[in-house]
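job 3f2a | input accepted
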Amino acid sequence: MDRLRASRKLSAEELRRFVVEQRAANRQARLDHFRKTGRIDPAAAAISGETDIVADEYVFSPGLVRARPRRRFLDAVLLLVEIGAVVGLVFVIFNGLNMLKDLNRQVLGVIQQPTLTPTPLIMVVVLPAGHLPPDAQGSVRPNEAEIPQHLRPLVQSMADVPVPTPSIEQAARIQIPAIDVDAPVVQGDGWEQLKKGVAQHIGSANPGQRGNVVLSGHNDVFGEIFRDLDRLKSGDEVILFTSQRTYTYVVTSNRITEPTDIDVMKPTIDPVVTLISCYPYRVDNQRIVVNAVLKIEK
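job 3f2a | predicted structure (298 res):
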């Protein structure tokens, strides 16, 4: 307020000089501040003779002048490093997810093994009921010569196959009216079972079921049950009894085949019965096979 009152008494020249001095004092204060903070090089200012230049034209330190472009360069480098780090992190995460997916797929492949088809066991080498013709004393024994030599150990190992527990659905008796056959049916078609009657092959279908009921019997020993099997013709009946029901089959074919023709024992879709015996009578080097289909009651 005192300076304002005093300025009213000053002339125009004195007022101009006052303003210049005030501005110079302000500039000097700023220069001193810049020198203290290192933003101006005193030696460079002294050489250039521009100690009293305005603040917008100060002579700055060469180190500071170079520092700004260098800092911009370092900032750019750091930015590139940060971008590279982010890209690398994204790549690592993506690669890790792919590795985890592949690992899960491999583990799943190990856990979920494909269903393996079991190798079928050889349960039949030759057709059952084979034997040598009876000798002069009436003795008889199996005919091992009709079994391929490399399969004979297998046949011997199958001799002790256990007979399954009897079921009410299994065949218990067989009748063939055309050739006067009426005999019991036993399970298993081994040498000992065939001494007791007509033998049903283990694993073949039961009477009345879809599939092949395979029955065999001797023609010239142990009761000669199937002695006249070759006399059967189409239309003749084969009657199978279980403990609960009776099933009638009708003969469709009658043929002579080799002992190794085991295809006649294969499972079938339709309910059929296959009768097997040695042939010819007292020669026994072939087989006679009779096929019959289930008679559907209307």
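job 3f2a | The CA atoms of residues 132 and 143 lie 5 Å apart.
job 3f2a | closed
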